[in-house]
Amino acid sequence: MNFISTDENTLVGIEAIDKQHKEFVKILNKLYSLKNSQDVEKKKEEMQKLEAHIKEHFQTELDLMVKYKDPGYISHKLEHERMEKKISQEVRKFAANPGTISEEFLNDLKRWFFNHLEFNDRKLAKHIKSVT
Ligand SMILES: [Fe+2]
Ligand SMILES: [Fe+2]
């Protein structure tokens, strides 16, 4: 069973966003499955993938917010910055203590994803649909 799974209810209806959200879910499941693995290199690779993915994804959403003059821009951007910092911190922690992927961190990410989806991303998607 997957650590995190999504269905059509988690889609926001903007292709670029939905595609990247699916990628996030994939990375999170991979990290969870690697949690107890001895393969430190693979874990490191996946942690870096997470960091790179989140940067790319936040930039995609930010570009959309700017392009469509989204009124939720400020709070959405702040929320991204908070999460990006947290992930970078965790990646650094992992580098200092290779081999350990915190389950608490993965649970936080999962919780954050669903909250953020409902409170920020869905609003952005709604706004885009209302102006296009
Ligand atoms: Fe977002
Ligand atoms: Fe998002």
Walk me through the topology.
Layout: H1 15-34, H2 40-67, H3 73-96, H4 103-131
Bound molecules: fe (ii) ion (2 copies).
One fe (ii) ion is lined by residues 61, 76, 80, 116, 120-121.
What does this structure look like?
This protein is mainly α and 132 residues long. The protein has one domain: Up-down Bundle (Four Helix Bundle (Hemerythrin (Met), subunit A)). The chain is built from four helices and no strands. The protein has helices spanning 15-34, 40-67, 73-96, 103-131. Helix 1 (15-34) runs antiparallel to helix 4 (103-131), helix 2 (40-67) packs antiparallel against helix 3 and helix 3 runs antiparallel to helix 4. The chain is elongated and about 50 Å long. The termini are far apart. The mean pLDDT is 96. Bound molecules: fe (ii) ion (2 copies). One fe (ii) ion is lined by residues 17, 21, 57, 61, 121.
Q: Tell me the total number of β-strands.
A: 0
Overall helicity = over 70%
For the termini, the CA-CA separation is 39 Å
List SSEs in N-to-C order. Answer: HHHH
Question: Unreliable runs, pLDDT <50, ≥5 residues?
Answer: none
Q: How many domains? A: 1
* Largest sheet composition: none
Cα radius of gyration in angstroms: 15 Å
Q: Percent of residues in beta strands?
A: under 5%
How confident is the prediction overall: mean pLDDT?
96
Question: Looking at CATH, which topology would you report?
Answer: Four Helix Bundle (Hemerythrin (Met), subunit A)
Which small compounds were modeled alongside the protein?
A: fe (ii) ion
Helix/strand-derived category reads: mainly alpha
CATH class category: Mainly Alpha
Number of helices: 4
CATH 2nd-level architecture: Up-down Bundle
Q: What is the approximate shape?
A: elongated
What is the CATH superfamily label?
Answer: Hemerythrin-like
